[in-house]
């Protein structure tokens, strides 16, 4: 039997569902396994061999996403604003990602956010278990490992603490937040909105739209969500992944990472590391923005590799638009023309969020086809 067959054999001969269920019912995530002292990763985390083989030769060194400096940016719409807006559009077309420095969010707040989120994951297991759930639609604060645990080909080596203020118009009840990180989360929301508004304004200007255009569409009543990912040091990092390749379901995402690294963006079919920049924040464009800009801006495919170093902390702040079943979004009229007709039909944020949760993370990129006019043929 060759290696490929041997591995296929191992992968199919174990009780995968049983292993997933036991892991899920333990409610302690990957940290629970590491705390129990495992030296090899359980089968459920091992990526199929063909997927691992496909990765060979796909990493690209000596390239990096643009760093954009907001230092001289004022609230006025002047020459500097136009220049930065242009830089953002170039970054969006070439990378779908950029890093921003001098963004106005205090560095101490970023450090505190990382520290407190770390404390959430490292607190007493019984406290953490109380937040463990797979009810992602109605709860606003939860802890879990792998939202797509039962759908993906292999589980990823990370735990997640999540705050969802999509359904509540951006409001979160402080009483529901875990005491260990409540204050910093509440403190984090406004600076993220300010920065998010600024970036949406710059993209609008860069695309030749009214400066408030995207801000008005994305923000609604300030709908947002936060995913705090905790990537543990992995004993066999080459066999698994931290986060599978995906495109975010958002207008934009503001991502904070610590100094460990592991995040990669797909650029010209190669994976490029997004190196940590002290005090910097990472901005990436999601598939909602791609659809409403009629593909002028592309959502970027990214992933996080597993590492032997850790734990690595990251905090993703998603702007996904106000949660509604009304089909109010679709390609912006000003961005379409006879020569450049709408690619997508109208859609609601509910539809797109639901389609996100119905699939494995890796399949999210295919979601866009479902929203294409040609998918339905009749444009409805
Ligand atoms: C995400 C994501 C990257 C990271 O949560 O969507 O891509 O570095 N996170 O954790
Ligand atoms: Ni992402």
UniProtKB/TrEMBL annotation:
SUPFAM superfamilies on file: Clavaminate synthase-like
Keyword DNA-binding set for record: no
UniProt cross-references to PROSITE patterns, sorted A to Z: FE2OG_OXY (PS51471)
Entry keyword set: Iron, Metal-binding, Oxidoreductase
Fe2OG dioxygenase domain boundaries: 222-321
InterPro entries recorded: DIOX_N, IPNS-like_FE2OG_OXY, IPNS-like_sf, Oxoglu/Fe-dep_dioxygenase_dom
GO molecular function: dioxygenase activity; metal ion binding
Protein family according to the UniProt entry: Belongs to the iron/ascorbate-dependent oxidoreductase family.
Protein name as annotated: Fe2OG dioxygenase domain-containing protein
Annotated organism of origin: Chenopodium quinoa (Quinoa)
Taxonomic classification: Eukaryota, Viridiplantae, Streptophyta, Embryophyta, Tracheophyta
UniProt gene name: LOC110728057
């Amino acid at each position: 039997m060759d290696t490929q067959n041997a591995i296929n054999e191992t992968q199919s001969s174990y009780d995968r569902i049983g292993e997933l269920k036991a892991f899920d019912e333990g409610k302690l995530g990957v940290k629970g396994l590491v705390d129990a002292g495992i030296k090899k990763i359980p089968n459920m985390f091992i990526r199929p061999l063909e997927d691992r083989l496909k990765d060979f030769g796909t990493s690209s060194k000596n390239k990096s996403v643009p760093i954009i400096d907001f230092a001289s940016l004022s609230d006025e719409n002047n020459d500097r604003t136009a220049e930065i807006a242009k830089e953002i559009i170039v970054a969006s077309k070439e990378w779908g990602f950029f890093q921003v420095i001098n963004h106005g969010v205090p560095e101490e707040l970023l450090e505190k956010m990382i520290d407190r989120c770390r404390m959430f994951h490292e607190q007493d297991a019984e406290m953490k278990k109380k937040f463990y759930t797979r009810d992602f639609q109605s709860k606003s604060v939860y802890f879990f490992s792998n939202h797509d645990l039962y759908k993906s080909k292999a589980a990823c080596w990370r735990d997640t603490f999540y705050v969802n203020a999509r359904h509540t118009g951006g409001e979160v009840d402080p009483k529901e937040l875990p005491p260990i990180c409540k204050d910093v989360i509440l403190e984090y929301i406004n600076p993220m909105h300010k920065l998010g508004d600024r970036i949406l304004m710059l993209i609008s200007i860069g695309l030749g739209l009214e400066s408030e255009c995207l801000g008005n569409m994305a923000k609604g009543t300030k709908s947002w969500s936060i995913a705090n990912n905790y990537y543990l040091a992995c004993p066999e990092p080459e066999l698994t992944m931290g986060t599978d390749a995906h495109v975010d379901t958002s207008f934009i995402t503001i991502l904070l990472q610590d100094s460990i690294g592991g995040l990669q963006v797909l650029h010209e079919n190669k994976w490029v590391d997004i190196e940590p920049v002290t005090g910097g924040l990472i901005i990436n464009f999601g598939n909602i923005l791609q659809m409403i800009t009629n593909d002028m801006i592309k959502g970027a495919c990214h992933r996080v590799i597993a590492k032997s170093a850790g734990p690595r902390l990251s905090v993703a702040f998603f702007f996904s638009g106000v949660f509604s079943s009304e089909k109010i979004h679709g390609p912006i009229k000003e961005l379409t023309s006879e020569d450049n007709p709408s690619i997508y039909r109208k859609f609601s944020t509910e539809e797109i969020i639901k389609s996100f949760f119905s699939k494995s993370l890796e399949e999210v990129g295919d979601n866009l086809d479902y929203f294409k006019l040609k998918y339905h043929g009749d444009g409805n």
